[in-house]
Amino acid sequence: MSALTRIPAAQYLRMSTEHQQYSLDNQAEALQRYAEGYGFLIVKTYTDAGKSGLVLTRRSGLNQLLQDVVNGTREYGAILVYDVSRWGRFQDTDEAAHYEFLCKRAGIQVHYCAEPFANDGSLSSSILKALKRSMAAEYSRELGVKVYVGKKRLVQLGYRVGGEAGYGLRRMLLSQDGKRKQKLQHGERKSLITDRVILVPGPKKEVEWVRRIFRMRLRKSYFAIAQKLNSWGVPHLRGKPWTEDRVKAVLTNPKYAGRNVWGRTSAKLKSRSRAIPPEQWTVSPVTFEPLVDQQTFSRAQAVRIKRSSPPLSDEALLKKLRVLLAAGSKLSSSILEQSPGGSADTYRLRFGSLRRAFELVGYRLPPGQLKVSEQSRRRRRLQQMLIGQVHELFPNQNRVCFVKYRLAFILEDGAATVPISICLCFTTRREKLLRWMLRVPRADRNIPTLICLANLTADSFVAFYLMRGIEMGNQYSIKGGEDPLLQRGQRLDTLADLWSVAQITPQG
Question: Which of the 8 DSSP states describes residue 364?
Fold first, then answer.
């Protein structure tokens, strides 16, 4: 069958963060065989790499697909998906049906290419599809239970489960036989599934400040302590300022007294995070070296209970925003952090985002601030995508360190570090030409740097370039693949080529 007579189709590919049998390449290969066998021509690809199928949020590929379908801005008449679970593992099976119905109403049929039934609307296919959706949802529920039990067991054995260690603490990697290997930096992950992690005291200055914070708590509030630390020029982790929530995180977490605690909050199956009562926490007593003794920690908790007040209601939080808005005519996260009674994180947790909270009191962010917010959101999405790809490509390498928006490869012998700069894509106003904005910190100039050029929708990368060194200002606009700056570097066919190239590119 010639290409002219084949039906144009889009393919949707998704792989979650769990270790799955079918990678994106395998899905694409299966869909290509299906297309050739049933007379389709794949003209468009939507991808969600490293994305959970539980919710639509953050699945930029499926969101863009649905947007193109609903708006009519598409050049295809069918959608190919590997199976029902790739479309999603929505806990409400009606949600999965709704998104498929949007396609059907627009005249676009969804084909599940690896399923044993044709999605033709017949009674048998409808029953099987409903069953498959329920099975996909149940798989996530069962997996969640298994993961929960496994993590709980590790905590009871005295190992650390979770993300950052916290101020004053660091994560120490242990081998299978319990020998200490190395401290993990921010963003680093263990490379072997048999390795374990514990908490150890961090830098001496941080440990001293933690102990001083506990002493200050006897006479000062969280907000007053944060103000004092900032006035003294004491930075939180990675140079961030202190806030009420960050001070509270130090003063209320039992890990500072050496106890291994897990399950203080819960967000199962991508649900809204909620606090768990202390009696339901998983606690392994005195498994880490404490920064403060139990008596000091208990005194801080007694002060908290004595001074505690019920958490502010949503309306009370919004009332506070109205007062701040009336006083200063504008709102921002920094303004919230400088006022007592509710940090920016509190508003994000309650209302989903600061922007949403601001809109509820009638304040809209200026266009410039909105643009910065959108760029930050896109950059975070690319960060997570790159981390997932790196973790999959280089699972056995010693160190892969992620710092803020930069990912750094640290070679096994520690002789070289390759920082990575993610470049967002934009179009010029007049010519509508693609451009990429490159920002290189002064400390990273003149050393090997990997440049990652994102596509316009910021859901994948279009090219990778390894530069021997970059001599430029703080910002540079890359004008396509023929840009003189890129011509001085080495283009990588895939991200997988980085390790072999980087090993022969020592830091200068």
Answer: -
Sign for the CA dihedral angle at 11, 14, 19, 20 comes to: negative
**Using an 8 Å Cβ cutoff, are 456 and 495 in contact?**
no
Q: How far apart are the first and last CA of the chain?
A: 56
CB 55 within 8 A of CB 85: no
Q: Per DSSP, what are the bridge partners of residue 9?
A: 42, 78
One-character DSSP codes across 264-306: SEE-GGGPPPEE--GGGSEEESS-S--SS-HHHHHHHHHHHHH
Residue 206: Cβ-neighbour burial (10 angstroms; 0-12, 13-18, 19+): buried
Strand pairing report for 274-275 and 265-266: antiparallel
276-312 per-position pLDDT tens digit: 787 788 888 777 889 999 899 999 888 877 766 677 7
Which has the closest alpha carbon to 461: 440, 436, 484?
A: 436
Both tokens of residue 148?
């929960």
CB 291 within 8 A of CB 210: yes
Q: Would you say 507 and 415 are in contact if contact means Cβ atoms under 8 Å apart? A: yes
Q: Which amino acid is at 463?
A: A
DSSP-H helix ranges across 175-286: 204-216, 222-231, 244-252
CA-nearest of 162, 144, 189 to 54 is: 144
pLDDT digit string, tens, across residues 48-59:
887 777 878 778
Q: How many residues does the chain have?
A: 508
Label each residue of 408-450 as H, E or C.
EEECCCCCCEEEEEEEEEEECCCCCCEEEEEECCHHHCCCCEE
Give the Cα separation of 418 and 166 in Å (integer): 26
133-152 burial, b if ≥16 CB within 10 A, otherwise e?
beebbeebeeeeeeeeeebe
pTM, rounded to two decimals: 0.55
Q: Which amino acid is at 489?
A: G
The H or E element containing residue 31 is: helix 24-38
Tell me the range of 264-273, 335-344, 406-415, 424-433 where mean pLDDT is highest: 424-433
| Whole-angstrom distance, CA of residue 111 vs CA of residue 95 | 18
The residues near 361 (Cβ < 8 Å, ≥ 6 apart) are 318, 321, 322, 325, 331
Q: Distance between CA atoms of 385 and 387, rounded to whole angstroms?
A: 5
Residues 206 and 229: their CA atoms lie apart, in Å, by 12
Do residues 461 and 49 make contact, with C-beta atoms less than 8 angstroms apart? no
Amino acid at 372: V
Helix (H) or strand (E) holding 37: helix 24-38
**H helix runs in 41-196, sequence order:** 60-71, 84-87, 93-105, 123-156
